[in-house]
Specification:
The strands form three sheets. Strands 2-4-1-5-6-7 form a six-stranded mixed beta sheet, with helices on both faces. It has helices spanning 15-22, 49-58, 87-95, 121-152, 156-173, 185-190, 218-226, 239-247, 251-261, 267-278, 303-310, 312-316, 326-332, 335-340, and strands at 4-8, 40-45, 62-64, 67-72, 99-105, 202-207, 233-237, 281-286, 291-298, 318-324, 345-347, 358-363. The protein has 14 helices and twelve strands. A hairpin with a 4-residue loop joins β8 and β9. The two termini are 22 Å apart.
Length: 365
């Protein structure tokens, strides 16, 4: 189950540096606006101590962790919603992602040019927000034009859609993002195909210098205050320090570097976990002598749906699932031991898979 997050922000805020730290791709970016013209796509391996433990137990021939796809999207500028700075192309790239990682420059460095001449992350946030909101408003107005006549003519579905579109329009015209409009699950189904830019989950990443990696600074405090009403997540990351950490060869060296900064965990690891939380993602496992593998699924998915993540035939011909709880597997040390003491649950189509479940699916097609 691939998850794609788009990294956005103004030029020269540290997006590509962060992207290089996160992904296996190494984008070579110079210090000037629009250094990334085509979006770079990288793949993050999601660290999970539970998978490491399963590998220790089963010693499999193959180990497959979960991954997240990251898209480094070129720096947006004022007027992007109207096509400025190749804006239309960049906004289209954002539309194809599941969530937005919004990088804000919260460090001073006279050697790195800021497109607006000074460091002000709240102002920068407002520029990006406005461009995305304007593009969403254009989408809404186009849809209203198509929907209104049908609604007036008595089409009940069109009437429901029109009412929701008007609520979106009102919020966007007030400078609010679409995610601030509260909709029921049923209402969301009605307008699922809108794919609004400002309705996507957002994580604000404050890029600071090394000295502010632990406690932040005045800029991060300003961002924190600015997003207080958004119900959004915020992380403080020193991208330059993360780049240095990524160059170290051993785990011990990386840990020593983190300790020197007063950190227990790298910004990359924290960002990956925040992305999981952002999209309400969880992990289930399959494990044995041949392979130990972690699979990503959305919280609340039932057994047949998660079976379909492995293969569509598993969902189509689903019979039942055998489920071992992670803690039982680790404590008893094998599937056989769990089976002998009755620690394998037999679950049907209505079983809601839980984070950490070790699954074995039975199917027939």
């Amino acid at each position: 189950m691939a998850l794609q997050c788009g990294i956005v922000g103004l030029p020269n805020v540290g997006k590509s540096t962060l992207f290089n730290c996160l992904s296996n791709a190494r984008a070579q970016a110079a210090n000037f606006p629009f250094c990334t013209i085509e979006p770079n796509v990288g793949v993050i391996t999601v660290p999970d101590e539970r998978l490491t433990k399963l590998v220790e137990i089963d010693n499999p021939k193959r180990v497959v962790p979960t991954t997240i796809e990251i898209v480094d999207i070129a720096g947006l500028v004022k007027g992007a919603s109207k096509g400025e700075g190749l804006g239309n192309k960049f906004l289209a790239n954002i539309r194809n992602t599941n969530a937005i990682i919004h990088v804000l420059r919260c460090f001073e460095n006279e050697n790195i040019t800021h497109v607006d001449g000074s460091v002000d992350p709240v102002r920068d946030k407002g520029i990006i927000d406005t461009e995305l909101q304007l593009k969403d408003l254009e989408t809404i107005e186009n849809r209203i034009g198509k929907c209104q006549k049908q609604a007036v003519a008595g089409d009940k579905i069109a009437k429901r859609q029109y009412d929701i579109l008007c609520r979106y329009k009102e919020a966007l015209e007030q400078g609010l993002s679409a995610r601030t409009v509260e909709l029921t699950a049923e209402e969301r189904k009605t307008v699922y195909d809108l794919n609004l830019l400002t309705d996507k989950p957002v994580l604000y990443v404050c890029n600071v210098d090394e000295s502010a990696a632990l406690t932040g600074n005045a800029h991060t405090e300003a961002v924190k205050a600015a997003i207080a009403a958004e119900n959004a997540e915020m992380l403080i990351v020193a991208a330059s320090a993360e780049a240095d950490i990524a160059e170290l060869e051993t785990y011990e060296e990386r840990q020593m570097f983190l300790e020197d900064l007063g950190l227990k965990e790298s910004g990359v690891s924290r960002l990956i976990k925040a992305a999981y939380k952002l999209l309400d993602l969880q992990t289930f496992f399959t494990t044995g002598a041949d392979e130990s593998r972690a699979w990503t699924f959305r919280r609340g998915m039932k057994a047949p749906e998660t079976a379909g993540i492995i293969h569509t035939d598993f969902e189509r011909g689903f019979i039942r699932a055998e489920v071992i709880k992670y803690n039982d597997y680790v404590e008893l040390g094998s599937e056989r031991a769990c089976r002998e003491v009755g620690k394998i649950g037999i679950e049907g189509k209505e079983y809601v898979v839980e984070d950490g479940d070790i699954m074995h699916f039975l199917f027939n097609v």
